Amino acid sequence: MKVITEKGIRYRRNNDAAILESCEELEGEISVPEEIDGAVVIEAEDYAFSRKRITQLELPRYLKKIGRYTFYRCLTLQKLSFSDSLTDIGAGAFIGCNPKEVEIDFYQGEKSCLKSILDEVRYAFCVKMHFHKEDGTVETAVVNFPEFYEEAVENTPARILEIQFHGAGNRYRQCFYNKELNFAEYDSLLSWTINEDTEEWVTNLVAYRLKYPYKLSESAKERYEDYIKAHMNCAGRYFAEKEEMEMLKFLCENKYFTKEAMDIAIETSAQEKKTEILSMLMDEKRKLFPKQKKSFEF
């Protein structure tokens, strides 16, 4: 056995495998290498990153396991990246975390540990899934999971505590079979998130599902398109505020914008002084809604 410390992270090497034991007071964006001293990093031990002020963490491709409470109270963790090699997650690994984005690279199919993460994180977050094909191409899906919370309510006559769920997030977290996300079931829950979540949140979920339509059926696409067309005022304002240039371009290219929605997005960009977004939207407005030439009758 050999102990190696590199860039503030301590590893234990055992033959051709390395185990990440612990780390110093790391901050900011961290990328764990695939190999240390010629050994492949395959595991992170209990509490390995606990309480560290990490904002983004990229785990190595061949990491198979993370231990108990590995990310316990990583309060600043915003983004986590890993591959489908990671299948074993210890209890409490994500307690006290509120990641905004999870990114997964799939090389062996569609199974992953995503369900285990969702079981521990009740807050809303975005998941980017990259499916690497044998021919070298990559298909991407972007799915958003709403938040939810539980409430214990006493059934007074029966003296029984009943658990009630608020928010659509709990239903979305059940769309997994044998560690694979069932996209059809995910798409069937649109009415639930419309009833339970904000217009901005639903608009974001719908727009990204349309932009990255991995395994999106025609019927589900129609439902999403009906929603985005009816809520383009919100979409224009929301994505302009977030400065999401690529999403705004997508909405323009697919002619989802109405003139009213375009004017709202332009006004939002001007008020927020987002000059690049404003310039792009002005150009798109001229293309989508050209001024009518005046005609004169004699």
Structure write-up:
This protein is of the alpha/beta class and 298 residues long. It has ten helices and 17 strands. The strands form four sheets. Strands 1, 2, 3, 5, 6, 8 and 10 form a seven-stranded mixed β-sheet that branches. A hairpin with a 2-residue loop joins strand 2 (9-14) and strand 3 (17-23). Helix 5 (199-211) packs across helix 7 (232-241), helix 8 (245-253) runs parallel beside helix 10 (275-288) and helix 9 runs antiparallel to helix 10 (275-288). The longest helix has 14 residues, at 275-288.
Distance between the termini: 96 Å
Range of helix content: 25-40%
Give me the Rg, rounded: 23 Å
Q: What is the arithmetic mean of pLDDT? A: 92
Short description:
The protein has 298 residues and is α/β, with parallel strands linked by helices. The chain has ten helices and 17 strands. The chain starts with a strand and ends in a 10-residue tail after the last helix.
Question: Could you list some keywords that capture this structure?
Answer:
single chain, 298 residues, alpha/beta, seven-stranded mixed β-sheet, six-stranded mixed β-sheet, 10 helices, globular
List the helices and strands and how they pair.
Elements lengths: L1 E5 L2 E6 L2 E7 L3 E5 L3 E2 L2 E6 L8 E6 L6 E2 L12 E5 L4 E2 L11 E6 L7 H7 L4 E8 L5 E8 L3 E7 L4 E7 L2 H4 L3 E2 L2 E2 L1 H5 L2 H7 L2 H13 L6 H13 L1 H10 L3 H9 L5 H13 L3 H14 L10
Parallel strand pairs: 3-6, 4-7, 6-8, 7-9, 8-10, 9-11, 11-12
Antiparallel strand pairs: 1-2, 2-3, 5-6, 12-13, 14-15, 16-17
